[in-house]
Amino acid sequence: MMVEEEIRLYASHHQFYVQDSEPRGTADDPSFWTKEASDNCLASGDGLLAVGTGTYGFVKVRVEQHDSEPPLDLSAWDHVTICGLEVRTRFLLIMGCLSQSGLFFEVKPRQYRVRACHANLAESEQEVPSTWTGEFHDWYVIQFWPGKLSKPKVLKRR
């Protein structure tokens, strides 16, 4: 069984969050956005993950909830990371970094594996004319399923 939803998020400060609805960790913690986390485009805290984006603006994010690890075609993505996340409440939330709301997934409190797939990053890194008013087109797929906690790992580096 797979549950899938899509959202347009404001990726303020080049990031969005995947988190427990009541995370214990915070993005303000000095150990959150380390140099390694920045290089990997994935920061990890207690009940909180931040996915680094190419865009400081609106991005499309598709979120997929799976019963087990879904297949992955690395050639379809620019950058892919995976990490563990412990959810202690009944909700996993995907939201922009300064947002008050986002997508809620009702889940069992447990440990999850979270995979972040980044697409079309080159477009978000181009030189932007000062008169430009459009949007970038980098987009993201977040997949999560029950699994053991693990440290962030890059499966494909851009």
What is the number of strand segments?
A: 11
The H-and-E topology, N to C, reads as EEHEEEEEEEHEE
Shape: globular
Largest sheet: 6 strands, mixed
CATH architecture: Sandwich
Q: Name the average pLDDT.
A: 91
Ends apart, CA distance between termini: 31 Å
The tally of structural domains comes to 1
**What is the count of helical runs?**
2
Low-confidence stretches are none
Q: Output the radius of gyration.
A: 15 Å
The fraction of residues in strands falls at: over 45%
| CATH homologous superfamily title | Competence, DNA-entry nuclease inhibitor, ComJ
> How helical, in percent, are the residues?
under 10%
Give the CATH level 1 class. Answer: Mainly Beta
Question: Structural class per helix/strand content?
Answer: mainly beta
- Give the strand order of the largest sheet, numbering strands 1, 2, ... along the chain: 1-5-10-9-6-11
CATH topology (fold) name = Substrate Binding Domain Of DNAk, Chain A, domain 1
Quick gist of this model?
This protein has 158 residues and is mainly beta. The chain is 6% helix and 47% strand. The mean pLDDT is 91.
